Predict the 3D structure of the following.
Amino acid sequence: MAKVYLTGAGPGDLELLTVKALRVIKEADVIIYDRLANAEILKEVKNGCEFLYVGKEDGKHTIPQDEINEFIYEASLKYDVVVRLKGGDPFVFGRGGEEALYLREKDVAYEIIPGISSSISVPAYAGIPVTHRGVSTAFKVVTGHISADKNSSNIQWDDLRSDDTIVFLMGYKNIDIICEKLLQLNKPKEYPVAVISKGTTKEQKVVVGTLANIVDKSQGLVSPVLIVMGEVVNLREKLEWFKTH
């Protein structure tokens, strides 16, 4: 009987792939993979494994999500072991829940294999703990997606008034709006911000600034980019450990 594994590939560093994920990747008859999954992972497959790329480029979906759902279902009719490989974790803004619901409706067996989320691992590789005693007791992970005309979003801005650490995923192209909104919530101009490009990889680049200057300081970074805000950013000066050069 066919089974689909909705599998997290982790944040980028190949060694952060879980043991279980690696096992099913080696057993896969077909891998349906995203842009953010490290391409080196695909070298671990068995002979004869098929590949289907369904990556989504910066706001431009190569294949609509409903079609991806159908591709996964159709693959389950043809192959015994189907691996849907997603960057990070399938359930952290990965739309894995939608794919799982579709498979449930189609009565297809599936399993969720969590991946290490970039929301915690990328800050960690930048020397920034998302929580730290006496500094931040909680953290929020927020989608940075805003409409193309930049006039609407699903972000609950009022929920970001606290001193909790804030991690924005998919927010780099809207960093100007994000900073402006937080300043309107009376966050101080000196509020610490780090912007991290290609986190956990050899190409990682970290830019540190404040709400007042991070937009200018972080120009030209390469996707994927994560934004982390809060007093924990100041710990990077002492905790930085991952050297890329």
Summary: The first strand starts at residue 3 and ends at 8. The chain has a mean pLDDT of 93. The two ends are 48 Å apart (CA to CA). The helical segments are 19-27, 65-78, 96-105, 118-125, 175-184, 214-217, 236-239.
